[in-house]
# Entry
Amino acid sequence: MKKKAIAGSRTVLALALAVFAFGVAVVSAQEMSTTVATGLNGPMGVLVTSDGSVWVIDTGVGGDREVEFPSPLSGELTVYKYGQTARIIRIDAEGTQAEVAILPSVYTSPGDGAGGSRLAMLNGTLYATIGALSGDGPPEMGAVVRIEAGRVTEVVNVWDFESDQNPDGFRLESNPYGLAAGPDGNLWVADAAGNDLLKIDPDTGQIEVVAVFDGVPSPIPNPGRGDAMESDPVPTGVTFDEDGNVYVSLLPGVPFLPGSAKVVKVTTDGDVSDHATGLTMLTDLRTGPDGELYAVSFGRFSEQGPVPNSGAIIRVKEGTESEEILSGLSFPTSIDFNAGGDAYVTVDGMGEPGTGALVMFKGLTSRPAVDP
Amino acid sequence: MDNHQLIVSGLEVYRSQYCGLCHVLDSAEAGGLFGPTHNAMGATAEQRIRDPKYTGMATTAEGYIRESIIDPAVYIVLGYGHTRYQMPAYTNVSKACVNALVQMLLQET
# Structure
């Protein structure tokens, strides 16, 4: 079994959430929200498909087996529970929920675990990313998988690719996180720890590195990047515009400064440029049915830890003109829309087991910016 | 600069360098998540340099704290050897700021 490095960005978020109390989705406009699903164990991704179905994927709570990893929280070797407890749940147009598949999960405590990450539907087939932790972990972690009739099949193990290629040249880390079905018929994956954007052939598992993201300026040195004064970029969400250009949200890593997050544009040639800047802790990015980009802002991080109910949904505009259209969310992780512009948002993505939820905000795309 | 001024200045440096993001220090209202506590740092530093497992060069508590700021890799506190959030070497910070930081932490007993 190959040695796995700690999955940076996932760990960033995990640690950010490891020590605070979870809460309910408190929004500035509660009257427009509907709780669609509760009892989720670290919901990381939501997907709305053209038939009106809503799919959600969670991290899980480990299982009966025990595996040892260095804890990203303390650095000490820690026994993680491991098992098939991450879930993909489908909620049909009538609101009926069904468990579609289960995936591997490792877990010690709220926020300190990995499992299901994101979902995409490509040519009628469902795909998912599975996160990773550190140490000699279960080999099925850090992968992109296909789900057909409840059966989970690995498309490719991204950790293996990272350990062979290490595209960014820094620490060996991989956390396949953001996932999108590309108009070219490929799967596009944001490796949040590898700090790159990957294009994956769903049939062969062949990986092409589309872009490696630069570090983000930081006021403190980063030992993981040769003590450069920059944070890890930590790509989280991937989406496309009508012209096939790719947009990627960057978290970025420690010290999680407000305003340090951004959305970058990646051309079909792999050129990366800033599209929107001045944002905070972005965990997802989607193109709405109106053609606008929408980002999930996980919340603010202070020296006292993550600030409760500081999450937001952002309508992304070029430069520094982005608008906050929903505020006061409890650590949202992902977003998707139906054709009518209703938004589905996963909240409390890394709180105590069972506290995660999926909330629907009616007509969010037509909502004006909230007052600052 | 008298000792009180140094401590005040040290607290400012502590905040400006985001030390509290990783470390706990009550006097700075910092509840960091990723590194060992800075509460009672002066007393802890005395213990560390007497620990047979200590691998640094410092012979005083003051020296230990200074070393931990500018060359943290020489001694890693037990339990933090594998953390992803390694302590950066703050060689970018001025000598005056490091001095203030050292004095501030030293009086945490």
Residues 1-27 of chain A have pLDDT under 50 and may be disordered. Residues 8-16 of chain A form the longest helix (9 residues).
